[in-house]
Amino acid sequence: MSKIEIRLAGVGGQGLILAGLILAEASAIFDNKFVSQTQSYAPLARGAPSKSELIISDREIDYPEVEKADLFLALSQDAYDKYINDLKENGIVIIDKDLLASKHFSSLIALPLTEIAMKSTGKSFSVSMAALGVIAALGKFSSYESLIKSIKKNAPKGTEELNLKAFEAGFSAFGKH
Amino acid sequence: MKEEYIFLSGNEACAEAAIKANLGFFAGYPITPSTEIAEILAERLPSQNKIFIQMEDEIASLAAVIGASIGGLKAMTATSGPGFSLMQEHIGFAVMAEISCVIVNVQRLGPSTGQPTSPSQGDVMQARWGTHGDHPIIALSPSSVKEVFDLTIQAFNLSEKYRIPVILLMDEVVAHMREKLKISTHDIRIYERKKVKLTQNEEYYPYKNEVSKVPALALFGEGYRFHITGLIHDQAGFPTLRIDEINDWQDRIFGKIENNLDEIIQYEEEDLEDAETVIISYGISVRSAQAAKNIARENGKKVGLIKLLTIWPFAEELIKKVSKKVKKIIMPELNRGQLVLEVERNACFGGAQVIRINRLDGKLISPKAILDKI
Protein backbone atom coordinates (compact mmCIF):
# COMPACT_ATOMS: atom_id res chain seq x y z
CA MET A 1 0.00 0.00 0.00
CA SER A 2 1.57 3.26 -1.03
CA LYS A 3 -1.14 5.82 -0.51
CA ILE A 4 -4.91 5.36 -0.14
CA GLU A 5 -7.31 8.28 -0.41
CA ILE A 6 -10.79 8.02 1.13
CA ARG A 7 -13.60 10.55 0.94
CA LEU A 8 -16.78 10.34 3.04
CA ALA A 9 -19.36 12.92 2.03
CA GLY A 10 -22.99 13.75 2.69
CA VAL A 11 -24.82 16.21 4.91
CA GLY A 12 -24.42 17.28 8.53
CA GLY A 13 -26.19 14.94 10.99
CA GLN A 14 -25.22 11.69 9.21
CA GLY A 15 -22.25 11.11 11.49
CA LEU A 16 -19.61 11.44 8.76
CA ILE A 17 -17.12 13.41 10.86
CA LEU A 18 -17.24 10.73 13.59
CA ALA A 19 -17.01 7.94 10.99
CA GLY A 20 -13.93 9.64 9.53
CA LEU A 21 -12.34 9.85 12.94
CA ILE A 22 -13.11 6.18 13.69
CA LEU A 23 -11.69 4.98 10.37
CA ALA A 24 -8.66 7.25 10.75
CA GLU A 25 -7.79 6.12 14.25
CA ALA A 26 -8.35 2.48 13.30
CA SER A 27 -5.72 2.92 10.57
CA ALA A 28 -3.32 5.20 12.47
CA ILE A 29 -3.20 3.50 15.86
CA PHE A 30 -4.53 -0.04 15.43
CA ASP A 31 -3.17 -0.70 11.90
CA ASN A 32 -0.07 1.47 12.56
CA LYS A 33 -0.23 3.51 9.35
CA PHE A 34 0.45 7.19 8.71
CA VAL A 35 -2.90 8.97 8.47
CA SER A 36 -4.00 12.54 7.87
CA GLN A 37 -7.69 13.15 8.39
CA THR A 38 -9.30 16.44 7.42
CA GLN A 39 -12.88 17.54 7.40
CA SER A 40 -15.05 20.26 6.06
CA TYR A 41 -18.37 21.33 7.42
CA ALA A 42 -20.54 24.42 7.58
CA PRO A 43 -21.43 26.50 10.64
CA LEU A 44 -24.81 24.70 10.88
CA ALA A 45 -25.69 21.64 13.00
CA ARG A 46 -27.64 19.70 10.35
CA GLY A 47 -28.42 19.65 6.67
CA ALA A 48 -25.40 21.48 5.23
CA PRO A 49 -22.67 19.68 3.24
CA SER A 50 -20.30 17.67 5.40
CA LYS A 51 -17.17 15.81 4.36
CA SER A 52 -14.40 13.87 5.96
CA GLU A 53 -11.23 12.89 4.09
CA LEU A 54 -8.43 10.49 4.91
CA ILE A 55 -5.04 9.78 3.48
CA ILE A 56 -3.62 6.45 4.67
CA SER A 57 -0.01 5.65 3.84
CA ASP A 58 3.07 3.67 4.79
CA ARG A 59 5.07 6.89 4.48
CA GLU A 60 4.76 10.34 5.98
CA ILE A 61 1.98 12.29 4.27
CA ASP A 62 2.57 15.59 2.49
CA TYR A 63 -0.67 16.99 1.02
CA PRO A 64 -3.43 16.04 3.50
CA GLU A 65 -6.53 16.32 1.31
CA VAL A 66 -8.02 13.87 -1.18
CA GLU A 67 -7.37 14.56 -4.85
CA LYS A 68 -8.43 11.27 -6.49
CA ALA A 69 -10.26 8.87 -4.21
CA ASP A 70 -9.68 5.11 -3.92
CA LEU A 71 -12.88 4.91 -1.90
CA PHE A 72 -15.80 7.33 -1.98
CA LEU A 73 -18.81 7.08 0.31
CA ALA A 74 -21.69 9.27 -0.90
CA LEU A 75 -24.70 9.85 1.34
CA SER A 76 -26.33 12.67 -0.59
CA GLN A 77 -27.00 13.43 -4.23
CA ASP A 78 -25.10 16.72 -3.98
CA ALA A 79 -22.01 14.99 -2.60
CA TYR A 80 -22.25 12.28 -5.27
CA ASP A 81 -22.59 14.75 -8.12
CA LYS A 82 -19.77 16.93 -6.84
CA TYR A 83 -17.12 14.25 -6.33
CA ILE A 84 -18.04 11.27 -8.54
CA ASN A 85 -15.48 12.31 -11.16
CA ASP A 86 -12.63 12.68 -8.64
CA LEU A 87 -11.93 8.95 -8.52
CA LYS A 88 -8.92 6.80 -9.24
CA GLU A 89 -9.38 4.13 -11.89
CA ASN A 90 -11.50 1.36 -10.32
CA GLY A 91 -12.08 3.55 -7.28
CA ILE A 92 -14.82 2.04 -5.14
CA VAL A 93 -18.02 4.02 -4.61
CA ILE A 94 -20.47 3.21 -1.82
CA ILE A 95 -23.87 4.90 -1.93
CA ASP A 96 -27.13 4.81 -0.05
CA LYS A 97 -29.33 3.80 -2.97
CA ASP A 98 -32.46 5.20 -1.32
CA LEU A 99 -30.90 8.66 -0.89
CA LEU A 100 -29.44 9.19 -4.34
CA ALA A 101 -29.46 7.99 -7.92
CA SER A 102 -26.44 6.64 -9.74
CA LYS A 103 -25.90 4.86 -13.02
CA HIS A 104 -24.49 1.38 -12.57
CA PHE A 105 -20.76 0.64 -12.87
CA SER A 106 -18.64 -2.28 -11.74
CA SER A 107 -17.04 -0.72 -8.66
CA LEU A 108 -20.34 0.68 -7.33
CA ILE A 109 -21.76 -0.69 -4.10
CA ALA A 110 -25.38 0.46 -3.78
CA LEU A 111 -27.09 -0.46 -0.51
CA PRO A 112 -30.02 0.94 1.47
CA LEU A 113 -27.63 2.14 4.19
CA THR A 114 -30.04 4.38 6.10
CA GLU A 115 -32.65 1.62 6.13
CA ILE A 116 -30.04 -0.85 7.38
CA ALA A 117 -29.13 1.59 10.14
CA MET A 118 -32.78 2.21 11.04
CA LYS A 119 -33.57 -1.52 11.20
CA SER A 120 -30.61 -2.29 13.45
CA THR A 121 -30.70 0.72 15.80
CA GLY A 122 -33.84 2.72 15.12
CA LYS A 123 -31.64 5.77 14.52
CA SER A 124 -31.02 7.14 11.04
CA PHE A 125 -27.88 8.96 12.19
CA SER A 126 -26.10 5.63 12.62
CA VAL A 127 -25.98 5.40 8.81
CA SER A 128 -22.25 6.21 8.76
CA MET A 129 -21.55 3.29 11.11
CA ALA A 130 -23.41 0.97 8.75
CA ALA A 131 -21.21 2.36 5.97
CA LEU A 132 -18.11 1.65 8.07
CA GLY A 133 -19.35 -1.96 8.33
CA VAL A 134 -19.38 -2.14 4.54
CA ILE A 135 -15.88 -0.66 4.42
CA ALA A 136 -14.70 -3.27 6.95
CA ALA A 137 -16.21 -6.02 4.79
CA LEU A 138 -14.22 -4.77 1.79
CA GLY A 139 -11.13 -5.75 3.78
CA LYS A 140 -8.58 -3.58 1.99
CA PHE A 141 -8.97 -0.28 3.84
CA SER A 142 -8.99 -1.17 7.53
CA SER A 143 -9.61 -4.42 9.33
CA TYR A 144 -12.80 -5.45 11.09
CA GLU A 145 -10.96 -5.79 14.40
CA SER A 146 -9.30 -2.38 14.21
CA LEU A 147 -12.59 -0.70 13.37
CA ILE A 148 -14.37 -2.37 16.31
CA LYS A 149 -11.61 -1.14 18.66
CA SER A 150 -11.81 2.36 17.23
CA ILE A 151 -15.62 2.51 17.52
CA LYS A 152 -15.38 1.48 21.17
CA LYS A 153 -12.79 4.17 21.75
CA ASN A 154 -14.38 7.03 19.83
CA ALA A 155 -18.16 6.59 20.02
CA PRO A 156 -19.75 9.02 22.49
CA LYS A 157 -20.11 7.40 25.91
CA GLY A 158 -23.27 5.30 26.16
CA THR A 159 -23.65 4.93 22.37
CA GLU A 160 -20.99 2.26 21.81
CA GLU A 161 -23.51 -0.60 21.57
CA LEU A 162 -25.75 1.32 19.21
CA ASN A 163 -22.86 2.20 16.91
CA LEU A 164 -21.52 -1.36 16.96
CA LYS A 165 -24.97 -2.73 16.05
CA ALA A 166 -25.18 -0.47 12.99
CA PHE A 167 -21.58 -1.41 12.08
CA GLU A 168 -22.36 -5.15 12.28
CA ALA A 169 -25.53 -4.67 10.24
CA GLY A 170 -23.55 -2.93 7.50
CA PHE A 171 -20.85 -5.61 7.64
CA SER A 172 -23.31 -8.46 7.09
CA ALA A 173 -25.37 -6.50 4.54
CA PHE A 174 -22.30 -6.37 2.29
CA GLY A 175 -22.07 -10.17 2.35
CA LYS A 176 -25.60 -10.36 0.94
CA HIS A 177 -24.89 -7.61 -1.56
CA MET B 1 11.23 6.68 28.66
CA LYS B 2 7.92 5.33 27.49
CA GLU B 3 6.84 6.37 24.02
CA GLU B 4 3.36 6.06 22.67
CA TYR B 5 1.45 7.22 19.65
CA ILE B 6 -1.71 9.20 19.98
CA PHE B 7 -4.03 10.34 17.22
CA LEU B 8 -5.26 13.86 17.68
CA SER B 9 -6.18 17.14 16.04
CA GLY B 10 -4.06 20.27 15.91
CA ASN B 11 -6.26 22.00 18.48
CA GLU B 12 -5.96 18.99 20.80
CA ALA B 13 -2.18 18.98 20.33
CA CYS B 14 -2.06 22.69 21.18
CA ALA B 15 -3.95 22.14 24.45
CA GLU B 16 -1.80 19.11 25.35
CA ALA B 17 1.41 21.02 24.66
CA ALA B 18 0.26 24.01 26.70
CA ILE B 19 -0.37 21.71 29.66
CA LYS B 20 3.09 20.14 29.15
CA ALA B 21 4.59 23.64 29.14
CA ASN B 22 3.05 24.22 32.60
CA LEU B 23 0.21 26.47 31.52
CA GLY B 24 -1.34 27.86 34.71
CA PHE B 25 -4.07 30.12 33.36
CA PHE B 26 -6.32 30.27 30.33
CA ALA B 27 -8.86 33.00 29.66
CA GLY B 28 -10.76 33.12 26.41
CA TYR B 29 -13.97 33.48 24.47
CA PRO B 30 -14.56 30.35 22.38
CA ILE B 31 -14.67 30.90 18.63
CA THR B 32 -14.55 28.57 15.62
CA PRO B 33 -12.10 27.16 14.54
CA SER B 34 -10.21 27.46 17.85
CA THR B 35 -13.02 26.30 20.18
CA GLU B 36 -11.61 22.85 21.01
CA ILE B 37 -8.56 24.43 22.68
CA ALA B 38 -10.82 26.20 25.19
CA GLU B 39 -13.07 23.14 25.58
CA ILE B 40 -10.17 20.85 26.45
CA LEU B 41 -8.52 23.30 28.81
CA ALA B 42 -11.86 24.00 30.53
CA GLU B 43 -11.97 20.32 31.36
CA ARG B 44 -8.30 19.75 32.16
CA LEU B 45 -7.03 22.84 34.00
CA PRO B 46 -9.39 22.94 37.01
CA SER B 47 -8.66 19.28 37.83
CA GLN B 48 -4.97 20.25 38.16
CA ASN B 49 -5.78 23.23 40.39
CA LYS B 50 -5.10 25.58 37.50
CA ILE B 51 -7.39 28.27 36.23
CA PHE B 52 -9.75 28.42 33.25
CA ILE B 53 -12.03 31.42 32.79
CA GLN B 54 -14.48 32.06 30.00
CA MET B 55 -14.50 35.84 29.68
CA GLU B 56 -17.14 38.19 28.29
CA ASP B 57 -15.08 38.93 25.19
CA GLU B 58 -11.59 38.80 23.70
CA ILE B 59 -10.53 42.20 25.04
CA ALA B 60 -11.11 41.01 28.59
CA SER B 61 -9.59 37.63 27.77
CA LEU B 62 -6.16 39.02 26.97
CA ALA B 63 -6.39 41.50 29.87
CA ALA B 64 -6.96 38.57 32.24
CA VAL B 65 -4.09 36.64 30.66
CA ILE B 66 -1.73 39.59 31.15
CA GLY B 67 -2.82 39.93 34.78
CA ALA B 68 -2.29 36.23 35.45
CA SER B 69 1.17 36.38 33.91
CA ILE B 70 2.17 39.30 36.13
CA GLY B 71 0.93 37.14 39.00
CA GLY B 72 3.45 34.48 37.98
CA LEU B 73 1.46 31.98 35.94
CA LYS B 74 2.17 30.89 32.40
CA ALA B 75 -0.88 32.23 30.62
CA MET B 76 -2.52 31.92 27.23
CA THR B 77 -5.63 32.61 25.20
CA ALA B 78 -6.91 31.17 21.92
CA THR B 79 -9.06 32.86 19.32
CA SER B 80 -9.68 33.41 15.61
CA GLY B 81 -9.63 36.49 13.38
CA PRO B 82 -12.56 38.44 14.87
CA GLY B 83 -11.22 37.93 18.40
CA PHE B 84 -7.64 38.57 17.33
CA SER B 85 -8.73 41.99 16.05
CA LEU B 86 -10.17 42.80 19.48
CA MET B 87 -6.94 41.74 21.18
CA GLN B 88 -4.65 44.13 19.32
CA GLU B 89 -4.69 46.88 21.95
CA HIS B 90 -3.63 44.49 24.69
CA ILE B 91 -1.00 42.83 22.52
CA GLY B 92 0.62 46.27 22.35
CA PHE B 93 0.34 46.62 26.11
CA ALA B 94 1.99 43.23 26.66
CA VAL B 95 4.82 44.20 24.31
CA MET B 96 5.27 47.55 26.04
CA ALA B 97 5.02 46.25 29.61
CA GLU B 98 7.02 43.14 28.60
CA ILE B 99 4.55 40.59 29.91
CA SER B 100 4.97 36.97 28.79
CA CYS B 101 1.86 35.41 27.24
CA VAL B 102 0.87 33.14 24.37
CA ILE B 103 -1.89 34.10 21.95
CA VAL B 104 -3.17 31.38 19.63
CA ASN B 105 -4.92 32.62 16.50
CA VAL B 106 -6.51 29.84 14.45
CA GLN B 107 -6.96 31.73 11.21
CA ARG B 108 -10.21 31.54 9.29
CA LEU B 109 -11.31 33.32 6.15
CA GLY B 110 -11.91 37.01 6.80
CA PRO B 111 -12.36 39.93 7.09
CA SER B 112 -15.11 40.28 9.71
CA THR B 113 -17.05 37.10 10.50
CA GLY B 114 -15.88 35.79 7.12
CA GLN B 115 -16.09 32.03 6.86
CA PRO B 116 -15.68 30.40 10.29
CA THR B 117 -14.97 26.87 9.03
CA SER B 118 -12.55 27.70 6.21
CA PRO B 119 -8.76 27.98 6.46
CA SER B 120 -6.84 31.16 5.75
CA GLN B 121 -3.42 32.72 6.20
CA GLY B 122 -4.88 36.20 6.12
CA ASP B 123 -3.70 37.40 9.54
CA VAL B 124 0.05 37.27 8.86
CA MET B 125 0.49 41.03 8.61
CA GLN B 126 -1.99 41.63 11.43
CA ALA B 127 0.15 39.42 13.65
CA ARG B 128 3.12 41.65 12.78
CA TRP B 129 1.54 45.10 12.70
CA GLY B 130 -1.96 44.76 14.17
CA THR B 131 -1.14 46.80 17.22
CA HIS B 132 0.01 50.37 16.71
CA GLY B 133 3.50 51.76 17.00
CA ASP B 134 6.88 50.25 16.15
CA HIS B 135 7.32 47.11 18.18
CA PRO B 136 8.97 43.70 18.18
CA ILE B 137 6.83 40.55 18.03
CA ILE B 138 7.30 36.81 17.66
CA ALA B 139 4.91 34.69 15.57
CA LEU B 140 5.21 30.96 14.86
CA SER B 141 3.30 28.96 12.25
CA PRO B 142 2.91 25.14 12.33
CA SER B 143 2.10 22.94 9.32
CA SER B 144 1.31 19.63 11.01
CA VAL B 145 -0.11 18.28 14.26
CA LYS B 146 3.40 17.49 15.47
CA GLU B 147 4.53 21.03 14.74
CA VAL B 148 1.51 22.43 16.58
CA PHE B 149 2.69 20.50 19.63
CA ASP B 150 6.35 21.54 19.31
CA LEU B 151 5.68 25.19 18.45
CA THR B 152 3.15 25.63 21.26
CA ILE B 153 5.88 24.66 23.71
CA GLN B 154 8.35 26.86 21.86
CA ALA B 155 5.86 29.76 22.04
CA PHE B 156 5.81 29.50 25.84
CA ASN B 157 9.60 29.13 26.03
CA LEU B 158 10.30 32.19 23.88
CA SER B 159 7.63 34.24 25.60
CA GLU B 160 8.95 33.47 29.08
CA LYS B 161 12.57 33.91 28.05
CA TYR B 162 12.18 37.23 26.23
CA ARG B 163 9.19 38.70 28.12
CA ILE B 164 7.17 39.22 24.98
CA PRO B 165 3.77 38.05 23.73
CA VAL B 166 4.19 35.19 21.27
CA ILE B 167 1.54 34.55 18.63
CA LEU B 168 0.92 31.02 17.42
CA LEU B 169 -0.64 31.42 13.97
CA MET B 170 -2.53 28.27 13.09
CA ASP B 171 -5.29 27.82 10.51
CA GLU B 172 -8.53 25.88 10.30
CA VAL B 173 -7.02 22.86 8.55
CA VAL B 174 -4.01 22.49 10.86
CA ALA B 175 -6.38 22.97 13.82
CA HIS B 176 -8.92 20.32 12.80
CA MET B 177 -6.65 17.91 10.92
CA ARG B 178 -5.91 14.73 12.85
CA GLU B 179 -2.52 13.05 12.68
CA LYS B 180 -0.42 10.66 14.69
CA LEU B 181 1.87 12.13 17.30
CA LYS B 182 4.59 10.43 19.26
CA ILE B 183 4.79 11.95 22.71
CA SER B 184 8.28 11.36 24.00
CA THR B 185 8.74 13.47 27.06
CA HIS B 186 12.52 13.21 27.30
CA ASP B 187 13.29 15.70 24.55
CA ILE B 188 10.82 18.37 25.62
CA ARG B 189 12.62 21.38 27.03
CA ILE B 190 10.51 23.69 29.19
CA TYR B 191 11.85 27.14 30.02
CA GLU B 192 10.84 28.49 33.42
CA ARG B 193 10.74 32.19 34.15
CA LYS B 194 13.83 33.88 35.62
CA LYS B 195 13.52 34.75 39.31
CA VAL B 196 14.55 38.09 40.81
CA LYS B 197 17.88 37.82 42.59
CA LEU B 198 19.21 40.95 44.28
CA THR B 199 22.36 41.57 46.26
CA GLN B 200 21.98 43.30 49.60
CA ASN B 201 20.71 46.90 49.38
CA GLU B 202 20.20 46.58 45.61
CA GLU B 203 17.06 48.26 44.27
CA TYR B 204 14.70 46.22 42.11
CA TYR B 205 14.13 47.47 38.58
CA PRO B 206 11.68 45.51 36.43
CA TYR B 207 13.02 47.23 33.29
CA LYS B 208 16.70 47.40 34.19
CA ASN B 209 19.13 48.08 31.39
CA GLU B 210 21.12 44.91 31.93
CA VAL B 211 23.31 43.01 29.47
CA SER B 212 20.78 40.25 28.77
CA LYS B 213 18.24 43.01 28.00
CA VAL B 214 15.65 40.80 29.72
CA PRO B 215 15.54 41.60 33.45
CA ALA B 216 13.55 39.26 35.68
CA LEU B 217 9.99 40.37 36.38
CA ALA B 218 8.98 40.23 40.04
CA LEU B 219 5.56 38.76 40.67
CA PHE B 220 2.80 40.91 42.05
CA GLY B 221 2.67 40.23 45.75
CA GLU B 222 6.27 39.05 45.93
CA GLY B 223 7.23 42.14 47.91
CA TYR B 224 8.85 44.46 45.37
CA ARG B 225 7.42 47.87 44.65
CA PHE B 226 7.32 48.76 40.96
CA HIS B 227 5.07 50.19 38.30
CA ILE B 228 3.63 48.74 35.10
CA THR B 229 2.29 51.01 32.38
CA GLY B 230 1.65 51.23 28.67
CA LEU B 231 3.50 54.56 28.65
CA ILE B 232 7.16 54.62 27.69
CA HIS B 233 8.89 54.16 31.00
CA ASP B 234 12.17 54.24 32.88
CA GLN B 235 13.89 51.28 34.52
CA ALA B 236 11.49 51.37 37.47
CA GLY B 237 8.49 51.35 35.16
CA PHE B 238 7.48 54.98 35.68
CA PRO B 239 6.62 57.19 32.68
CA THR B 240 9.52 59.18 31.27
CA LEU B 241 10.11 61.97 28.75
CA ARG B 242 13.91 61.86 29.04
CA ILE B 243 15.53 61.19 25.66
CA ASP B 244 18.33 59.08 27.17
CA GLU B 245 15.84 56.86 28.97
CA ILE B 246 13.65 56.54 25.89
CA ASN B 247 16.73 55.53 23.89
CA ASP B 248 17.73 52.96 26.50
CA TRP B 249 14.22 51.56 26.50
CA GLN B 250 14.18 51.31 22.72
CA ASP B 251 17.60 49.74 22.57
CA ARG B 252 16.54 47.07 25.04
CA ILE B 253 13.03 46.26 23.80
CA PHE B 254 14.15 45.77 20.17
CA GLY B 255 17.62 44.51 21.04
CA LYS B 256 16.39 41.57 23.10
CA ILE B 257 14.82 40.14 19.93
CA GLU B 258 17.22 41.41 17.25
CA ASN B 259 20.30 40.16 19.13
CA ASN B 260 18.86 36.67 19.43
CA LEU B 261 17.52 35.99 15.94
CA ASP B 262 19.53 32.76 15.65
CA GLU B 263 17.64 31.29 18.57
CA ILE B 264 14.24 32.73 17.71
CA ILE B 265 14.10 32.09 13.96
CA GLN B 266 13.39 28.44 13.21
CA TYR B 267 13.13 26.99 9.71
CA GLU B 268 13.77 23.72 7.90
CA GLU B 269 15.32 23.07 4.51
CA GLU B 270 14.55 20.12 2.23
CA ASP B 271 16.48 19.21 -0.95
CA LEU B 272 18.16 22.59 -1.17
CA GLU B 273 21.71 21.50 -2.15
CA ASP B 274 21.27 21.44 -5.93
CA ALA B 275 17.96 23.30 -6.14
CA GLU B 276 17.35 25.73 -8.99
CA THR B 277 13.83 26.45 -7.80
CA VAL B 278 12.88 26.74 -4.16
CA ILE B 279 9.37 26.80 -2.73
CA ILE B 280 9.17 28.91 0.43
CA SER B 281 6.19 28.29 2.62
CA TYR B 282 4.72 28.25 6.13
CA GLY B 283 1.62 26.90 7.87
CA ILE B 284 -0.71 24.56 6.02
CA SER B 285 0.60 25.69 2.61
CA VAL B 286 3.83 23.83 3.43
CA ARG B 287 1.93 20.58 2.85
CA SER B 288 0.97 21.64 -0.70
CA ALA B 289 4.57 22.73 -1.24
CA GLN B 290 6.01 19.42 0.01
CA ALA B 291 3.76 17.41 -2.28
CA ALA B 292 4.71 19.57 -5.27
CA LYS B 293 8.41 19.34 -4.43
CA ASN B 294 8.26 15.54 -4.03
CA ILE B 295 6.49 15.07 -7.38
CA ALA B 296 8.91 17.47 -9.10
CA ARG B 297 11.91 15.58 -7.67
CA GLU B 298 10.46 12.26 -8.89
CA ASN B 299 10.41 13.83 -12.33
CA GLY B 300 14.06 14.87 -12.06
CA LYS B 301 13.46 18.58 -11.46
CA LYS B 302 15.82 20.39 -9.11
CA VAL B 303 13.35 21.76 -6.61
CA GLY B 304 13.91 22.47 -2.92
CA LEU B 305 11.78 23.64 -0.04
CA ILE B 306 12.16 26.05 2.85
CA LYS B 307 9.62 25.71 5.64
CA LEU B 308 9.42 28.79 7.84
CA LEU B 309 8.37 27.86 11.38
CA THR B 310 9.05 31.36 12.73
CA ILE B 311 7.45 33.95 10.48
CA TRP B 312 8.07 36.98 12.74
CA PRO B 313 10.81 38.07 13.10
CA PHE B 314 11.30 37.27 9.43
CA ALA B 315 14.25 35.17 8.23
CA GLU B 316 15.76 38.02 6.16
CA GLU B 317 19.33 36.72 6.00
CA LEU B 318 18.18 33.26 4.92
CA ILE B 319 16.17 34.65 2.00
CA LYS B 320 19.01 36.96 0.95
CA LYS B 321 21.38 33.99 0.88
CA VAL B 322 19.00 31.64 -0.93
CA SER B 323 18.06 34.24 -3.53
CA LYS B 324 21.71 34.32 -4.62
CA LYS B 325 21.74 30.54 -5.13
CA VAL B 326 18.50 29.77 -6.93
CA LYS B 327 16.84 31.09 -10.07
CA LYS B 328 13.27 30.93 -8.95
CA ILE B 329 11.37 31.25 -5.67
CA ILE B 330 7.74 30.14 -5.46
CA MET B 331 5.65 31.30 -2.53
CA PRO B 332 2.20 29.75 -1.98
CA GLU B 333 -0.04 31.46 0.61
CA LEU B 334 -3.74 31.40 1.52
CA ASN B 335 -4.03 35.17 1.20
CA ARG B 336 -3.53 37.89 -1.43
CA GLY B 337 0.23 37.89 -0.88
CA GLN B 338 1.41 38.85 2.61
CA LEU B 339 4.62 37.14 3.72
CA VAL B 340 5.72 37.13 0.08
CA LEU B 341 6.28 40.88 0.47
CA GLU B 342 9.12 40.07 2.88
CA VAL B 343 10.45 37.42 0.51
CA GLU B 344 10.43 39.85 -2.42
CA ARG B 345 12.07 42.58 -0.33
CA ASN B 346 14.97 40.26 0.51
CA ALA B 347 15.16 38.22 -2.71
CA CYS B 348 16.02 41.35 -4.71
CA PHE B 349 19.52 41.13 -3.16
CA GLY B 350 20.19 37.93 -5.10
CA GLY B 351 17.96 38.48 -8.07
CA ALA B 352 15.89 35.29 -7.94
CA GLN B 353 12.52 35.63 -9.63
CA VAL B 354 9.68 35.45 -7.07
CA ILE B 355 6.40 33.85 -8.15
CA ARG B 356 3.31 34.23 -5.98
CA ILE B 357 0.56 31.64 -5.68
CA ASN B 358 -2.44 32.88 -3.77
CA ARG B 359 -5.81 31.48 -2.90
CA LEU B 360 -8.52 32.79 -0.61
CA ASP B 361 -11.71 30.93 -1.37
CA GLY B 362 -11.45 28.69 1.68
CA LYS B 363 -9.67 25.83 -0.11
CA LEU B 364 -6.05 24.72 0.06
CA ILE B 365 -3.60 25.38 -2.75
CA SER B 366 -3.34 22.14 -4.73
CA PRO B 367 0.11 20.64 -5.39
CA LYS B 368 -0.69 20.92 -9.10
CA ALA B 369 -1.10 24.69 -8.87
CA ILE B 370 2.49 24.85 -7.60
CA LEU B 371 3.81 22.26 -10.07
CA ASP B 372 2.44 24.37 -12.92
CA LYS B 373 4.76 27.22 -11.87
CA ILE B 374 7.93 25.14 -11.51
- Relative helix content of chain A: 40-55%
What's the architecture of chain A in CATH terms?
A: 3-Layer(aba) Sandwich
Mean pLDDT of chain B, to the nearest integer, reads 96
Query: Taking Cα atoms only, what radius of gyration of chain B do you get, to the nearest Å?
Result: 21 Å
CATH homologous superfamily placement of chain A: Pyruvate-ferredoxin oxidoreductase, PFOR, domain III
Count of helix runs of chain A? 6
Note the quaternary state here. Answer: heterodimer
Q: Could you tell me which chain pair has the largest interface and how many residues each side has? A: A-B, 21 and 21 residues
Shape estimate of chain A: globular
- H/E element order of chain A: EHEEEHEEHHHH
Question: In percent, how much strand structure appears in the residues of chain B?
Answer: 15-25%
> How many E-type strands of chain A?
6
Q: pLDDT average of chain A, as an integer?
A: 93
Category by helix and strand content of chain A? alpha/beta
Question: Which percent range fits the helix content of chain B?
Answer: 25-40%
Q: What is the level-2 CATH architecture name of the largest domain in chain B?
A: 3-Layer(aba) Sandwich
What is the alpha-carbon Rg of chain A in Å? 15 Å
Taken in chain order, the helices and strands of chain B follow as EHEHEHEHEEHEHEHEHHEEHEEHEHEH
Explained architecture:
The complex is a heterodimer of chains A (177) and B (374). Chain A is an alpha/beta fold and 177 residues long. Chain A has helices spanning 16-30, 77-83, 113-121, 127-138, 144-154, 160-176; strands spanning 3-11, 34-40, 49-57, 69-74, 87-96, 108-111. Chain A has a single domain, classed as Pyruvate-ferredoxin Oxidoreductase, domain 3 (3-Layer(aba) Sandwich). Chain A contains six helices and six strands. In chain A, strands 2-3-1-4-5-6 form a six-stranded mixed beta sheet, sandwiched between helices. The relative contact order of chain A is 0.18. The model of chain A has no long low-confidence stretch (mean pLDDT 93). Chain B has 374 residues and is an alpha/beta fold. Chain B folds into two domains: 4-187, Thiamin diphosphate (ThDP)-binding fold, Pyr/PP domains (Rossmann fold, 3-Layer(aba) Sandwich); 267-371, 3-Layer(aba) Sandwich (Rossmann fold). Chain B contains 13 helices and 15 strands. Chain B has helices spanning 10-20, 35-47, 58-70, 81-97, 124-129, 145-162, 172-176, 243-258, 261-264, 285-298, 316-325, 339-347, 367-371; strands at 4-9, 23-28, 51-54, 74-79, 101-109, 115-119, 138-140, 165-171, 178-183, 267-270, 277-281, 303-308, 310-312, 328-333, 353-358. In chain B, the strands form three sheets. In chain B, strands 2, 3, 4, 5, 6, 7, 8 and 13 form an eight-stranded mixed beta sheet that branches. Chain B has a five-stranded mixed beta sheet with strand order 10-12-11-14-15, with helices on both faces. Chain B has a two-stranded antiparallel sheet with strand order 1-9. In chain B, a hairpin with a 5-residue loop joins β5 and β6. The radius of gyration of chain B is 21 Å and the shape is globular. The mean pLDDT of chain B is 96. Classes of the chains: A alpha/beta (177), B alpha/beta (374). Chains A and B meet through α1 and β2 of A and β1, β6, β9 and α10 of B.
